[in-house]
Structures are given as C-alpha cells and as structure tokens.
What we know:
The chain is an alpha+beta fold. About 15% of the residues lie in helices and about 40% in strands. It is globular and about 45 Å long.
Amino acid sequence: MENDNHGSTPPDGFQPLFRSSAFLDHNGPFFYRTNDDGTFVVGVRIQPKHANGRGLAHGGLMMTMCDIALGYRTTRSQTPSPMLTTASVTTDFAGSARIGDWVEAHVDVHKVGGRLAFANCYLVCNGERIVHASAVFARTGDRPS
C-alpha cells in the first residue's frame, strides 16, 4: 500500500483492529500488530478529523486510544481472558502528534488479580513517548473459552 500520510494507511505489519464497534469505527480507523512474544501494539494514523484547531491530535483521541489499548492488551494477557471494565484512567501528556503522524500504543500489564487489574500505556510518535496513561480495571469474571 502506498503511504499517503493523510489517509489511514498503517505501516507494514499492521492490520485493522480485530474487534470493531460503531464508536471505534467512528473514531479510527485503529490498527494492530502482533509482536513475536504474543503481545500487540495498537496504532492510528492521525487524520484531519482527529485534529484540534491547531492541527495536533486531539487529547480526547489520545485518551481513547490509551483506553482501547490498555483494555484489549490487559484482557488478552491471560487465559481465560478476564472481562474487564475501566474503573480509572489517568493520562499525562508530554508531547503531541500532527496530521499524518503514526502513533503507537505500547502497554505493560502489571497485574491481573481476582477483582482488579493494573496496566500502563505509552503512546509513541516519531520515536518519542508523547502520552503516558495508567489504568485500573474492575474484573467481572472471565470470558467463555
């Protein structure tokens, strides 16, 4: 695929996010790549619809991306997969992304317990961490196998 930098073309190795919803379809498109260790990275190409009035990725989009990546990665960190509901996400901004930039979400799962799960996420753009988010999830059971 040709990279037009203003469309939604992802880098090689990325494919459409495996689970879709009207909300994600409206705010994306989001993509993912599976790593050799079985973990995965979520990504998005910043389009004009994602930008604020200054041409930067809107903070709400960045927070949404963190929540998506944190939840998907944390629930897929165990077998059987826990059913998780976001209880808290704290987000800190240290940089920004512009229209045409590719942004990736990298998640570290700290603990999935019987009632709560904890994880951190970094959004990376052009080799720099631009957002840090930490999340707490309530565990409401396990997904059927």
